[in-house]
Amino acid sequence: ESFLKKADGRFPVMDRMDSLLALRIRTDDPAGLDAMLDGSVETGLIFPVIPPNPRGGEVQSNAVPLGEGLLAWLGVQKVDSSWGAGVKVALLDTGVAPHSTFAAEIKNVMVVESAVGPEGWHGHGTAVASLITGKLRGVQGVAPGADLTSYRISDDKGRSDTWSMAAAIRRAADEDNQVISISMGSYGDSRLVQDAVEYALGKGAVIVASAGNDSYEKPTYPAAYPGVVKAVAVDALGEHLLFSNA
User: Fold this and answer.
1) How many angstroms separate the most distant Cα atoms in the chain?
2) Are strands 88-93 and 160-161 parallel, antiparallel or unpaired?
3) Cα torsion at 54, 106, 101, 157 (round to 10°)?
4) Nearest to 167 by CA among 109, 101, 233
5) 162-to-39, 59, 169 alpha-carbon distances in Å
6) What is the rounded CA–CA span in Å between residue 149 and residue 93?
7) For each successive 10 residues of the chain (246 residues), what is the average pLDDT?
8) In sequence order, what are the beta bridge partners of 24?
9) Which of 64, 112, 135, 245 could pair with 212 as two cysteines, CB 3.0-4.6 Å apart?
10) Cα 177 to the center of its chain, rounded Å
11) Model confidence pTM above 0.90
């Protein structure tokens, strides 16, 4: 509020996140903004967030594919329908469309709104959700009894940003989700996302985030932050695949 009073309308406010004491503003005068600040305000950029590159990159010639053997590779012979019961899982992604693999329609919290129905959304979030609570043969989820909520943080083409991600992490933590799954990432280190991650971890949440599929030696954020479980790609022998970020 102090900043807004001093700014006196010079910097249009696009959004605000009071829980993180953050304002999203637009400016064509960064020098004027810096001159107005007195050191009590921290500034940073908002970075793009994308799902992992589906095309991936190079795979070593001797890699052994998992095929439909993922559950067996995990040591699971048969999934018990009660697995995950009592556990609240938040999926931060592109939204989850109705599908026959789900016993019931997944609730979508619209952090980012859409002008079209779920049939027009990017399908990444639905695919990831099937790995958690899906029930069809070949796409059997490992926690079919979990209470899964989708937090839609992307537009219809799968594009998001660190502002939306931070808002969803904070909200998922405040809504008592014990597991927060984020199969998206950014190559920009956002202090806002870092603060949201630290807040969620402080509330006891487990955050699992994808490292990215661009063959880089550094994972995307938030997977790169301390305390976050980094998800990478391996083959049936447990060997790290070359396209997966380290």
Assistant:
1) 64
2) unpaired
3) -30
4) 109
5) 23, 30, 10
6) 11
7) 86 90 91 87 91 75 90 89 96 96 94 93 94 85 96 95 97 97 96 96 98 93 98 94 92
8) 15
9) 245
10) 14
11) yes
Among 155, 161, 86, CA closest to 122: 155
Tokens encoding 63: 């890699």
Angle at which helix 162-174 crosses helix 191-202, to 10 degrees, equals 10
Q: How far apart are CA 136 and CA 138, in angstroms?
A: 6
Size of the chain, expressed as the number of residues it contains: 246
CB 215 within 8 A of CB 195: no
What pLDDT score does 56 carry? 58
d(CA 142, CA 159): 27
**Helix H or strand E encompassing 12:** none
Q: Which H/E stretch holds residue 18?
A: none
Q: Could you give the CA distance from residue 171 to residue 164 in angstroms, rounded to a whole number?
A: 11
